[in-house]
Amino acid sequence: ATCRSDYNSTLAARRRLYGPNTSLSYEQPLMIVRGSGTYLYDDQGVEYLDCVNNVSHVGHGNPEVASAICSQLHTLNTNSRYLHPGLPAYTEALLNTLNGRPAFPPPPAASAPPPEAPEPASPPPPAPARTSAASASAAIAPTTTTTTTTTAQAGPDLSVLYLVCSGSEANDLALRLVAASRPGATHVAVMGGAYHGHTAALIPLSPYKFWGRGGEGRAPHVHVVPCPDPYRGEHLDGAAAARAVLEAARRAGGRLGAFFGESLLSCGGQVVPPAAYMRDLYGVFRSEGVVLVADEVQCGFGRCGAAFWGFQALGVRPDIVTMGKPIGNGYPMAALATTRALADAFAAPGMEYFNTYGGSTAAVAAGLAVLRVLTQECLQQRAAAVGDYLLAGLQRLVAEHEVLGEARGLGLFVGLEVVADKASRRHAPVTARWIKERMKARRVLLSTDGPYDNVIKMKPPLVFGFREVDVLLSQLSEVMARELTAAVRSELLAQEEGHWAAVMAPRQAAYRDNERRLFAGGAVARL
Ligand code: PMP
Predict the structure, then answer these.
(1) What pLDDT does residue 152 have?
(2) How many CB atoms neighbour CB 4 within 10 A?
(3) How many angstroms separate the CA atoms of 56 and 460, rounded?
(4) How far apart are CA 177 and CA 342, in angstroms?
(5) What's the confidence (pLDDT) of residue 4?
């Protein structure tokens, strides 16, 4: 353990030397010096349960991934201009998952029935009573078992891969592919609350930023599809939403080239879109030739439990998939997968594609190790079982506490909606932040998000288990029952009003204006 003067000088140096708007968590930031599995340790040796870090997908400090990277660094780390057997091995494994096959299929000779997937360590918990959002998603079959295909699901394999270094780079590259295949169709549709990256091209595609603090508003070439809000019964007609943005692009004198959408929205507030909504949206866009980009940076790699990819859980087939965060368990790498036709259109003008670190030998070693660990430890199945157990427990807390409006999610992608009260369903960001801070004092790390910052996010490393769920639930239950007294609640409610007027009301006005514009002054689509 270091002494507190180290903490103070590190904090002071950070403030003095680093960009002042660089994101830092918590009122009193943590100095984390070690991680193991789903636990983090601060400079004093205090252990924290990490319920948010979806980058350390197979666990902080995973030894297999660390040693794969390390030994590759000792042997060779070059760019992808040389042939290396690691690259095709990794690419095939990753593309397998995107096309509904296991990453490492058994050799062809093994035509016997596949072995049963091993169960997670603890006994399966009772099935939870699902919320409307979760049940909509759970009721559908993954693409791998679908026999009839609709327009939303039809399409050639995702058979070509580009390796890049960050989620932002993957989405930026997606924009270039769209431009190559749909020249002149420069308008783009995105979901409300979406975040797609930090570059100059992607902030304008991220309502989370352009309608958030310091944002400059919507650019004329960007059209915002209102995010479905099953909890409040709003915007559940995907086909109407798609038609409205197509028309808005036309009215603005443009043509829609692409739709960028996270399969499950994370910064947008841990939203699981109803499967029918997404299929209808995809169906209308596809029939107009709009390129469908699924941003799986947050929700991919087995997190949803029901399928390896979010789009598979919803039963849709994108033309481009962008991936990042968990792909290298913290090694900076990301990827874009697409069809042969789109890749050929991108290559047609003759300009070479090169990315110094994308597809480097070490990145490929990291990615392959992550896929191996995911497969060997059956982490997708584990996410399904542990996620169900977590959701059931959260739903019990929702039933008991006035300010918990809804628990929703799929697998280990879970959100808890904090509201002023159950009747109004008014967003309560101050209360959400207070819960997050109280949980930190109890050594449980959570975050808040959503367009109104009132959703408590849970997206832990997939090694999170039943024991960790029990700790999370019991600490949350204590905060709600013992610390959120009537006096505290009324104090928080008073703060909510001022905060809403100053920060959230302008944001809500931007979303409402957009809805009026899209639906020509007509009623907001409600259930
Ligand atoms: N897409 C989504 C959905 C994301 O959540 C993020 C990062 N939060 C990005 C893209 C950008 O990824 P990166 O930070 O690796 O550039």
Answers:
(1) 74
(2) 11
(3) 8
(4) 7
(5) 77
- Asked whether 79 and 356 are in contact (CB, 8 A), the reply is yes
User: Do residues 370 and 56 touch, judged by C-beta distance below 8 A?
Assistant: no
Nearest-CA neighbor of 277 among 234, 222, 247? 234
425 Rama class: left (phi>0) / alpha (psi -120 to 50) / beta: left
Taking CA 372 as the corner, what is the angle to CA 367 and CA 373, rounded to the nearest 5 degrees?
A: 100
Give the ligand 1 atom nearest the CA of 166: 15
Q: DSSP character for 11?
A: H
Residue 265 vs residues 64, 113, 389, 394: alpha-carbon distances, Å? 30, 36, 21, 19
Instruction: Note the pTM of the prediction, 2 decimals.
Output: 0.92
Residue 55 has pLDDT above 90, yes or no: yes
Probe target for ligand 1 pocket from 267, 322, 325, with the most ligand atoms within 8 Å of CB: 325
Q: How far is the CA of 424 from the centre of ligand 1 (A)?
A: 32
| CB crowding 61-95: b at 16 or more within 10 Å, else e | ebebbeebbeebeeeeeeebeeebebbeebbebbb
CA of 478 to the centre of ligand 1 (A): 33
Q: Which of 10-24, 50-64, 129-143, 218-232 has the weakest average pLDDT?
A: 129-143
**Angle at Cα 203 formed by Cα 198 and Cα 207, nearest 5°?**
125
- pLDDT tens for residues 259-286? 999 999 999 999 999 999 999 999 999 9
- Cα 201 to ligand 1 centre (Å): 13
Using the mean position of ligand 1's atoms as its centre, give its distance from the Cα of residue 325 in Å.
7
Residues with CB under 6 A from ligand 1: 166-168, 171, 195-198, 262, 266-267, 295, 297-298, 324
pLDDT for 2 equals: 64
Q: Quote the strand ranges of 144-279, DSSP E.
A: 160-164, 187-191, 222-225, 256-262
Domains and CATH numbers, the chain: 86-103+127-376 (3.40.640.10)
Identify the pLDDT of residue 139.
30
Q: Is the pLDDT of residue 118 over 60?
A: no
Atom of ligand 1 nearest to the CA of 325: 15
> Do the beta carbons of residue 366 and residue 374 sit within 8 Å?
no
Angstrom CA distances, 335 to 80, 91, 113, 462, stand at 14, 10, 32, 20
| Cβ neighbour number for residue 441 with a 10 Å cutoff | 12
